[in-house]
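Please fill in the sequence for the structure shown.

STRUCTURE ENCODING:
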């Protein structure tokens, strides 16, 4: 399997489909690059070079006991882009991957990147604070930590339901979609998965967003139960210098079915524009 080795010796798995102008995908927690397969194929079929990696500790990358923080995630993404000589790319990040994308751009600059796409992304800050009352209370993230440590297999099965809006009347999410979420989640190491919770919940990405100097598509479902839109996309679009906000009516956090088709259409149009 193809890997890039980072400066601290971590092996980062990546997949690369197609050729042409590069589009690079960063996945959400606690999944891996396989979660992007539908979009990877669509991008490759449209004549682009589709690239996605497994975050350290997730999927086929090294299950690290240290370095499970956003600085390392951004540096790992930089290592992949450098190793594959990626230039003039579009970066796409879902959920925690959106935090990874904006932190990469602030930390490493946009020299290799022409555009970015954030889908259901965690910036600017998920945690509820006096200055961020729309955020999610700390107790909710403590419950996630407890679920991961106590019985992560059952926790991931339960999480798949609101992740895809399976608890909403008329939901079309299938058992197969929920099973795939569980399968990918179980490939993440316990320590990396646990450590990553702080990175998607308590890291404030406001300064990162302010530093971004390229066009960004901010895409979010208005029925996202995992990363509520009021504390994320609506604020992100106001902070960014050049943002296009696209709200998907009724869409949950996870991409599947018609919601995935709608996002993929928007993604391809934004890449080509």
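FILLED IN BY: designer on duty
SEQUENCE:
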């Amino acid at each position: 399997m193809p890997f890039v080795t980072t400066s601290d010796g971590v092996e980062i798995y990546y997949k690369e489909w197609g050729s042409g102008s590069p589009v690079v995908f960063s996945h959400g927690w606690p999944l891996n690059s396989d979660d992007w397969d539908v979009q990877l194929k669509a991008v490759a079929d449209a004549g682009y070079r589709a690239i996605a990696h497994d975050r350290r500790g997730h999927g086929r990358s090294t299950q690290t006991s240290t370095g499970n923080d956003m600085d390392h995630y951004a540096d790992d993404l930089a290592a992949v882009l450098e190793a594959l000589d990626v230039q003039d790319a579009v970066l796409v990040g879902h959920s925690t991957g959106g935090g990874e994308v904006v932190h990469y751009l602030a930390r490493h600059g946009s020299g290799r990147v022409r555009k970015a796409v954030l889908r259901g992304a965690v910036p600017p800050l998920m945690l509820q604070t006096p200055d961020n009352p729309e955020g999610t209370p700390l107790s909710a993230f403590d419950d996630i930590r407890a679920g991961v440590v106590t019985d992560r297999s059952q926790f991931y099965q339960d999480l798949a339901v609101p992740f895809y809006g399976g608890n909403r009347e008329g939901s079309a999410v299938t058992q197969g979609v929920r099973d795939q979420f569980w399968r990918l989640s179980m490939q993440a190491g316990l320590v990396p998965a646990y450590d990553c919770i702080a990175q998607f919940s308590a890291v404030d990405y406001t300064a990162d967003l302010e530093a971004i100097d390229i066009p960004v598509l901010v895409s979010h479902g208005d029925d996202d139960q995992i990363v509520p839109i009021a504390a994320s996309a609506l604020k992100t679009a106001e902070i960014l210098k050049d943002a296009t906000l696209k709200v998907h009516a009724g869409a949950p956090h996870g991409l599947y079915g018609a919601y995935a088709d709608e996002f993929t259409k928007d993604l391809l149009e934004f890449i080509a524009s």
